[in-house]
Amino acid sequence: MSAPKFTTDRSHYKSALESWFAQQHQEWADVEITDIDIPVATGFSNETVFCSVRRSIDGVLGEDRFVVRIEPTGGALFPVQTPDCAVSVDVQYRAMATVASHTAAPIPPLIGFEHDLDILGVPFFVMGHVDGRVPSDNPRYTTAGWVVDEASPEQRRLLVQRGLEAMAEVHRMNWQDLDLGWLDRSPDGHPTMSHQLELYRNATRQWLAGRAHPVLDAGLDWLVANDPLDDRIGMTWGDARLGNILWDGFEPIAVVDWEATSLCPLEADVGWWLMFDRMSFDDIGVERLAGYPTREEQIAHYETVSGREVRNPDYWEIFAIVRFCAIFVGLGDRLVAAGLIGEDKNPAVANMVTAALADRLGIDNPTPSVLG
């Protein structure tokens, strides 16, 4: 099932959000958005709007900063788990509310979700702004930025360990004790990896629209043939990596980006974490930073703090790369549709993730990256 599509006009965001905040907080008077910032790089996953809201309560002026996450024009980049998950921002809000209610993992303050399309033209949610630093993706935090320039070896080790501990805290939830019917697509109420693999195969077949993607097909076939049949199911973060954590020094203060959450073996999060570790060092030819834990040390630390044995880490990393390959199909097409690149440079199939998957599977890659 494809996600619904919306058309977004940003010109009315300021006035519309002022009205929304005033409606949500009847005790507020003279509501005014004093500044609104829409980073130009957002919008393909979820558009993110930062704004400050000035208001008066019983004559006392105050101002707070908020973050608005807005449904992207083409819907989520990840496969829709269930019909109830068709709106990406709704999935994120529900996931964060669940984690905030049942774990000690740091989640930004949730202000409200809005499904009424008359406000912005699309669904959105609002959360409190958390003032923290984020390890950069571009340039990669292992090549430049505060992790390289400011952190000591001990602090780098602490950064990674605290990130793994935040992930382990998310994994403490017993999904069967929670009301997660909106996330469960299994016919018998017992999610398995086979459900996820079927979901990704069907979604990518639709997104590819007849285009060949032999490496992705081979990856899905490999995952089916080598399914470890792990029944240790849980609610996954889905996009578990250092860059999706806000930091105060070297302590995590907010775990964000939940659009890829699903019910499947929790090792899927470990695999995604390890994939980004490999992409941040091995795949770009960067030596591991002093103090930065090895992959084996990261697995061992996660096992210690979670109390869970990590089985078949290679399987879960390959699952992660297959998922990332799938995401690139939609991402590439959106870049072309937005006029940012030409069709001849569309990375939907020919990209570095496809190359990484072929390398891990030990097969030929007939689609070398168009991104250089």
Core attributes:
372 residues; alpha+beta; Phosphorylase Kinase, domain 1; 5-stranded antiparallel sheet; two-stranded antiparallel ribbon; 15% strand
What does this structure look like?
The chain has a domain of 119 residues: Phosphorylase Kinase, domain 1. It is built from eleven helices and nine strands. It is an alpha+beta fold. The N terminus is likely disordered. The strands form three sheets. Strands 1-2-3-5-4 form a five-stranded antiparallel sheet.
Roughly how many Å is the radius of gyration?
21 Å
Strand content: 15-25%
For the secondary structure, the number of strands is 9
Give the class from helix and strand content and strand pairing: alpha+beta
Based on the structure given, which CATH architecture of the domain at 10-128 is correct?
A: 2-Layer Sandwich
CATH class type of the domain at 10-128? Alpha Beta
Measured as a percent range, the helix fraction is: 25-40%
What general form does the structure show?
A: globular
